[in-house]
Every structure is written in C-alpha cells, then in structure tokens.
Amino acid sequence: MLGNRESYFEALDEVKNICQIKFADEICSVYVGGSVARGDFVPGRSDIDLYIVLKSNEIQNKLQLELEKIKSKEKPISVAYTTKKEVIGGQSFLGSGFEYNNFIREGKLIYGQEIKDRIPKPTREEEIKTADQCLKFFEASYKDYEEEVIERYFSATFRTLCIVLSGKGIYVSSKKDVVTVCNKKFKDRKLLNEKINVIYDLWITWGRERLTQEQVCTLLKACDDIMPLIFDLWESKE
C-alpha cells in the first residue's frame, strides 16, 4: 500500500505517462475522483479512483494491462471506463444520479480534454430512480460485507448515506461532510447521528492506527444498527 501522500501523486504521474506515451491518440480524458481528488485521502487506506474516457473500447484491455503494472507495485488503483460516445449520448455511468453530481463537483482532470460540459444532466426523477435502485442493491447485499475487511463496512455505510442524501437533493461525498449534514439537517434523528458519529470517529482512528478488537466489534455493531435507520430516512419525506 502507499504509505505517504507523495507516493499517491507519483502513482498519478505514472498513469499520465502511460496515457501520454502509449495511448495518446486513443484516450479522451482521465480524471481522478474521490478522496484523492478532494485531497482528504488517508495514505495507506484510500484507493486512487480513476475515470477514463476512451475514444473507443478497443484499447481498454491493453490499457488495463498497463495499469495493472502499477497496481502490482501495491498501489491501490481502481479504474472505471466509459467512452466519449457514451458520455455524449447520456449512456455513461458518469451521467447517472449520484455519480453525475459527484463527478461534476469533484472529478479532477489529470490528462486529456475536459468533458464535464458534454455530460447530459439527469433529471430529479432520474436521480431518485437511480438512488432507489442502488439502495435496493445495498439492502440486499449488505450482509455480504460482514465477511470482508473493515474498509468495506466504512464504505458501505457512507456510500449508502451519500446516495440517500443525493435522492433528497443534498450532494456530498466526503465522510466529514456526510456527518456534518446529518448532524445539522437531520438533528432530530438522534440515534442515526449517534451511530454515524461513532462510525466516523472510528474511521479517524483507523486512519492513524489499527483498530482494537473491541473497536472492531463497536464498528460492526454500529454499522448493523445504522443501516435500518438510513433506509428509514430514505423512506421519509424530510
């Protein structure tokens, strides 16, 4: 895993070099998203989320093989691909509900041409439909996360809350912003806020050191307790 902030930026430089030297005529744009784009990533914990817009799908496998060489150096890179045609035609995941608002606000161009203004903005009805579909998926699969690493619990909880908030017209994605919004806008939901504050405090601790067994148990219990509260918030008209 990457141990310091500089190593994350070095990994991004490697990505840019691969694109420029080997695929310059075939890549439209490369963006970095998530915590790395915002600058609040935790070295050794956070992934590097890349969004790559290709001129066609023909080079995806070749490009992925090149990027795997970076990943083989224990650099946590995740890549999502789309094409320029899909973007312009409104068929790309970048134009879908929560992803659209998240990408427009935080996606940082690191190579190629700016394409944000080419993405059709989804309607509120489309945003709500997408959020509902995602929530049904998370509700059905949440228990599967119990057997996976601690990061999955953090990710599932905050991601689900982000989707719920986007369905209500509130667009945030950093964990700190999610907690702030819940504490202020839904302050009457005391149990929800109690649980999300516990989970966030454990996230901060986890960024500094390994969680104790007691802390892990607290995290898993808080995540299990909060999921019904999140879905109850989604069903409400607040």
TrEMBL record:
GO terms for molecular function: nucleotidyltransferase activity. SUPFAM superfamilies: Nucleotidyltransferase. Keywords: Nucleotidyltransferase, Transferase. CDD domains: NT_KNTase_like (cd05403). Its EC number is 2.7.7.-. It comes from the Bacteria. InterPro entries: NT_sf, Polymerase_NTP_transf_dom. Residues 13-85 form the Polymerase nucleotidyl transferase domain. This is Nucleotidyltransferase domain-containing protein. It comes from Proteinivorax hydrogeniformans. The lineage of its organism: Bacteria, Bacillati, Bacillota, Clostridia, Eubacteriales.
